[in-house]
Amino acid sequence: MAKGMMRRFALAAMLAAVTPMPAIAAPATEVEQLLLHADRARGTDPNAFAADMHRLERLQHTATPAQQRQLQLLRAYQQALTGQYDKAIRDARALYAEAPEAALKFRAALLVANSAAITRDSTLGLRYLEGALALQDRIDDRDVRQAGFAVAAILYNQYGQFTLGRHYAELILAQAPSPRNRCIAQHLRIEAMLGLKAPVRSEEFLTAIANCNAQQEPIASNLLRGYLARHLASQGQTVKAIDLLEAHLPEVEATGYPRLIGEVHGLLAEYNLSAGRIAAAEAHARQALAKGGNGTYTLPLVTAHKVLYASALRRGDLATALDEYRQYADTDKARLDDVKAREFAFQVSRHELQQKNQAIALLSQQNEVLRLQQEVEKRNAQNSRLLLALLAVVLASVGFWVYRVKRAHSALRRLAHADAVTGISNRGHFRQHAMAMLAQCQARGEPVGAIVFDLDDLKAINDHLGHTGGDHVLQQVAKACLTHCRPSDCFGRLGGTEFGMILLGRDLAATRLVAEQCHESLAAIDTTALGAHLTVSASFGCTSSAESGYDFERILAQADHARDRRERDDLAALYPEAIASRQDVPAPM
User: Fold this and answer.
1) Which residues form a coiled coil (predicted)?
2) For 26-35, 44-53, 249-258, which range has the lowest pLDDT when averaged over its residues?
């Protein structure tokens, strides 16, 4: 590989070399610290980089898998920096294929692109450049992403694709680049503009040169001065272009960069020849040949042979002129062949990329067809499930409405059977239920008890508590007495303040015991929450089938008669003199 071509791409390799490693949070181990330090040193301090790599090789057995991959990338950089491009490409390609980290894949692909360009494997370089650019949306670090754009701009400019070179240079400038990245991007943009033969104002050259000077980038600054000199010469200011280049020639020589040195001497040779300074033109042409690199196809060498041919011709030295012309023709042809080869490589790469994209598009279409088929099957399955669900909903709705109808029917039946105030059986239901019970007990010969009770002076309760309070007392009475009834018993409100009970399987004594329990429960009803302290009481009458038989009307009448008799007995006990004289007595409370 010709040294001039290698130097031509050295700037691209340098840009990739200063791309930072992915950040490692809070470095705690020696390996982590060395990886970070080596990555920073490799583009600025080769000796420190070599020392760090030596220590890392000794400590690699303690490294994690992620650290091993970072070390693998640094090894590939070291190989490229020492001219072992084939090894660098091999290791970087392996890392690109294996690394799960997007940033490592991105940097490995850029290293392959740089190294392949240096070794003139343009197709491989462009393929990996496209691979790196495809990862750009997955790169969070702005500096890493901008370094990739810079490499893309450099390589596209070298391949004569100045529109793409300008695009990626302007992408860097649009993303708030660091001062150094701004210098590089401005240089690449101007280079692309000149390649496109687009106008560039003198102020743009001067601004870019000032920025690069501030970042102490003499190579970029003087490449820009070379572009500015061409701009001045194109406007007829050849002497001014010579003065600009002569003024900074010592700085150019100090960089030791053959491409830059060759180009400046080549331009000085061309412009001095144009100005009629034959001796100066020949001197600079020989300097371009001596210091511009050993390649046979670089522009400085072509320019130098052309100037030497023209100057020899002017002196009448036809033998030298013929020899220089042959060398000029050979170098110019080699340069043009190289340009065509790079353009062809770009077209091949684009064709491969187009085929790849078409294959991806075809695969995507096939996947879309498959997806649609699966979607149809899924929809069919969903429709089947929806039909089943709809059927289930219909059946559930029918069942629900059947349930609601039955429940409504039951509610209506309960309303028809229940007393509206107390919720227990009303007189009609109580009569129907009691008659059925009495008939069954008579058939079995089973005793039946009957209780009839009437609340004492509900009017006084209504006067004190109002009708709402009276209804509340009736509800509490029903609730209290219901606790003394068994499920088989019958309990109902006969009307007004009168209640009745038919007790299954109880004789008169057991019936009277239930009545006493009910009487105690009534006395325990608390009316203070209603705003008055009243004692609820009732007059009870009891009988049984043994005394009254099983006829409903008879047994209920006998119980009611017993209540009246007991009530008179109680009054006689309270007011004996009144009973003896048959005077009216007050009603009991």
Assistant:
1) 353-382
2) 26-35
CA distance 126 to 475: 96
Indicate the pLDDT class of residue 5, thresholds 50, 70 and 90: very low
Residue whose C-alpha is closest to residue 304's, from 281, 333, 322: 281
Range name among 286-295, 319-328, 425-434, 468-477 with the lowest pLDDT average: 286-295
Distance CA 508, CA 486 (A): 17
450 near 544, Cβ under 8 Å? yes
| Per-residue buried b or exposed e for 327-363, using 16+ beta carbons within 10 Å of the residue's own CB | bbeebbebbeebeeebeebbeebeeeeeeeeeeeeee
Q: pLDDT band at residue 347, thresholds of 50, 70 and 90?
A: low
Q: Residue 329 has which token pair?
A: 């023709």
Helix (H) or strand (E) holding 542: strand 538-544
CB-CB contact of 117 with 126 (8 Å): no
Quick check: 485 pLDDT over 90?
Answer: yes
The answer for residues whose C-beta is within 8 angstroms of residue 501's C-beta and 6 or more apart is 449, 450, 451, 452, 481, 485, 489, 490, 491, 514
Q: Which residues lie below 8 Å from residue 113, measured CB to CB, with a gap of 6+? A: 125, 126, 128, 129, 132, 151, 155
Q: Name the token pair of 308.
A: 């030497």
- Residue 169's Cα: distance from chain center in Å? 32
pLDDT confidence of residue 383:
85
